[in-house]
């Protein structure tokens, strides 16, 4: 646990200490490389490590079936290339981490407080997802590339990135309608109506996976995994409420990203009924909303600090303190956190 807390606190320290834009970019690049090595070289660390290892060992290299006919062909292709090259499973994690952090860096570096945004992504998106759910982690990374293309009005790139995300985790395909919104303004009512229609679509896309997760975590008796989802949902819904509270400020400061942030803010509120329907579904869908959540919270000290005499530093420590508390609770009470992540091991030192 100390290793993870140390990394998070180091990221928070750097976010507060490095204030120049040029300095932030250099430090961000170094941090991303360091995290890619940390995540990519892990050995027997992460709840899904053994499951992915088993799949790799017994993967049947059948070339008669079309790649597109396979479920989640992107991950199959990545695994197939590594296996054909004669490399071990550990290089699957290295390759996945390189893709994940490369795309994450491409998304984060455009934020005025990029280091804080990276720090806020670390507890959930890096530890809980990238170090365990490799396929969905890469899917989220491709989604961030789609979000960047969205802000540039590149509809075809948005489609390609979401399709790439869906090739690693089919649930990401629920975001394909974003392409129809590129370069257009939509009323809140229309967005809410679209989200209402897409909720059952998300459930259908994730139904088979939800059964697996239910058996693996809920029936296995990890109460913190199931009940802990409410804390993850609360973090995202809370950030969405903050965005709505300071919506005009965000519109002025981030005109290119505002429509996208507004859509993801409204989508965040749909996690509440999703949680009531299926806890694990809400938990898994929440991962896709974390990039926008981190964007909002990382911008908040600069936007809301001057309002009502509030101090920007106070907001900085309040936000980072909430995530520190989240990490302490998760590592302290989740059986999977202790059994899957502690101690951290790397094949560089194994």
TrEMBL record:
InterPro entries: EpsG-like (IPR049458). The keyword Transmembrane applies. It comes from the Bacteria. The keyword Transmembrane applies. The chain crosses the membrane at residues 88-108, 115-145, 157-182, 189-206, 229-246, 258-276, 288-307, 314-333. Keywords: Membrane, Transmembrane, Transmembrane helix. This is EpsG family protein. It comes from Mangrovimicrobium sediminis. The lineage of its organism: Bacteria, Pseudomonadati, Pseudomonadota, Gammaproteobacteria, Cellvibrionales.
């Amino acid at each position: 646990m100390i290793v993870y807390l140390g990394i998070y606190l180091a990221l928070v320290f750097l976010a507060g200490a490095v204030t120049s834009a040029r300095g932030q970019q250099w430090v961000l690049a170094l941090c991303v490389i360091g995290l890619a090595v940390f995540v990519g070289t892990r050995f027997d660390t992460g709840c899904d490590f053994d499951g992915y290892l088993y799949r790799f060992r017994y993967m049947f290299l059948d070339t008669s079936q079309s790649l597109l006919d396979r479920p989640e062909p992107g991950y199959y292709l990545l695994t197939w290339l590594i296996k054909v090259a004669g490399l071990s499973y550990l290089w699957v994690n290295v390759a996945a981490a390189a893709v994940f952090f490369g795309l994450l860096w491409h998304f984060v570096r455009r934020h005025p407080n990029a280091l804080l945004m990276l720090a806020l992504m670390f507890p959930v998106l890096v530890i809980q997802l990238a170090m365990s759910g490799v396929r969905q982690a890469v899917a989220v990374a491709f989604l961030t590339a789609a979000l960047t293309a969205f802000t540039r009005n590149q509809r075809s790139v948005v489609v390609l990135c979401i399709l790439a995300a869906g090739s690693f985790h089919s649930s990401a395909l629920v975001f394909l309608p974003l392409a129809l919104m590129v370069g257009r303004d939509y009323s809140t009512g229309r967005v809410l109506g679209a989200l209402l229609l897409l909720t059952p679509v998300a459930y259908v896309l994730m139904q088979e996976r939800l059964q697996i997760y239910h058996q693996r975590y809920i029936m296995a008796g990890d109460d913190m995994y199931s009940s802990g989802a409410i804390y993850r949902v609360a973090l995202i819904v809370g950030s969405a409420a903050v965005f709505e509270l300071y919506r005009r400020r965000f519109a002025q400061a981030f005109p290119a990203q505002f429509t996208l942030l507004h859509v993801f803010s409204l989508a965040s509120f749909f996690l509440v009924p999703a949680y009531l329907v299926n806890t694990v579904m809400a938990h898994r869908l929440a991962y896709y909303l974390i990039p926008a959540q981190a964007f909002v919270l990382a911008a908040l000290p600069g936007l809301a600090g001057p309002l009502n005499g509030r101090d920007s530093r106070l907001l900085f420590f309040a936000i980072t303190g909430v995530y520190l508390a989240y990490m302490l609770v998760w590592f302290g009470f989740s059986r999977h956190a202790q059994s899957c992540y502690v101690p951290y091991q790397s094949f560089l030192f194994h």
